[in-house]
Amino acid sequence: MLNGTVYGPTAALDLELSGVSSPVVNDGVIAGSTRLTIHPSACYTGPAISHLDAQFPSNPPEAGEVFTACIRGTPVLRRRVTFSPSPVKAKVESWTVLR
To answer: What is the 8-class DSSP label of residue 87?
Structure first.
């Protein structure tokens, strides 16, 4: 397990793990690209990447992010997602195919 945030805004993160029984990263990932192949243990049902609960205020606002998928450096798809931390939920607000 990586205790903290993985920060490599221009790096490619490629993780392949088996028998995972806890979050692989406990405070998020910032990377240029990410490929995760996670095979949890039979009894683990939690997330592969989590956030430290201590960072959320007791009644946090909803937050949003825009994710862009690229092929050979060319943006091809954009997705806007909002996150609600209590309870933790992600909602896809929009998908845009870029031409």
So the answer is: T
Enumerate the β-bridge partners of residue 95.
Answer: 79
pTM: 0.46
Report the side by side order of strands in the sheet with 63-71.
63-71, 74-85, 88-97
Q: Is 32 exposed, middle or buried (0-12, 13-18, 19+ CB in 10 A)?
A: exposed
**Inter-residue contact 40 to 16 (CB < 8 Å):** no
Task: Tell me the pLDDT of the chain (99 aa) as tens digits.
Answer: 677 777 787 888 888 888 888 877 777 777 888 887 878 888 877 777 776 554 445 555 566 777 777 777 788 888 888 877 666 677 788 888 887
Phi, psi of 73 (to 5 degrees): 85, -5
